């Protein structure tokens, strides 16, 4: 069953096209990785799935359907339900998700009551303590009564994940959820997200600039560059046999040697700070395999053996 369908989405800011001609869909239980260098549009795309457009950005084309309903046409109330019970968003900075002046319990209870998950503060506490235990918080009652500043980054992220799960969303969106955490906590949080998503047959959209994090976590990967999709396919095929020269470059820049990450080549040049509409491939200036047409025409996203690639070489 298709849960989410994005068609020809375009989101612009006065200085740049943040998301350009993006189309993809997500099935129930599917785990999708969204990867690309900083500034390629991952966050703008994932926030727009909740109809959140920050600053003076504008959706100028396309639609996003959640279970067949265009989210840009939902009433305020249905949108509020979508953000939480439809799509649960785990942010990069776990501590900033909480208001410093209220206890964790207060904020959790308010969210659960406002989404209709529980009716009273007492019920909220019972449910929260159960879920805090599930995400391996020691002494959940004590944590429930704590203030956010009393939590470590890892604890705050676990609590936030527990809160998202209590809302019982159908899709979990995790935007670099482990960047602010140390390596050991990172691994624990990734394992936690994977287990919970699989045990409950939830769909996952995991956003990262680190392709290696996606190994053993997702079934499918979308590679983004300059606001658009360059490659879309099942993780193993893309990882073992990348079609797009950009994906190839990303993969060449990392390798695993006896479990240790080593950085090898980097892709020449930089990600464009400003994306404008041009009749050329956005990656042409950095591409080691470019041919004549690459600087003359914007490539379509083509389907090849169940995968998709935006490249004139195919
Ligand atoms: N509030 C905003 N105001 C102006 N421009 C913005 C805003 N948010 C994003 N942009 C622009 O949109 C483009 C895409 O940004 P986005 O944050 O989606 O990239 P990203 O891939 O998520 O990067 P990172 O990995 O660094 O978070 C960038 O050029 C960025 O400058």
UniProtKB/TrEMBL annotation:
InterPro entries: AAA+_ATPase, ABC_Ni/Peptide_Import, ABC_transporter-like_ATP-bd, Oligopep_ABC_C, P-loop_NTPase. Keywords: ATP-binding, Cell membrane, Membrane, Nucleotide-binding, Transport. One of its GO terms (molecular function) is ATP binding. CDD domains: ABC_NikE_OppD_transporters. GO terms for cellular component: plasma membrane. GO terms for biological process: peptide transport. It is a peripheral membrane protein. Residues 4-251 form the ABC transporter domain. It is found in: Cell inner membrane. Belongs to the ABC transporter superfamily. This is Peptide/nickel transport system ATP-binding protein.
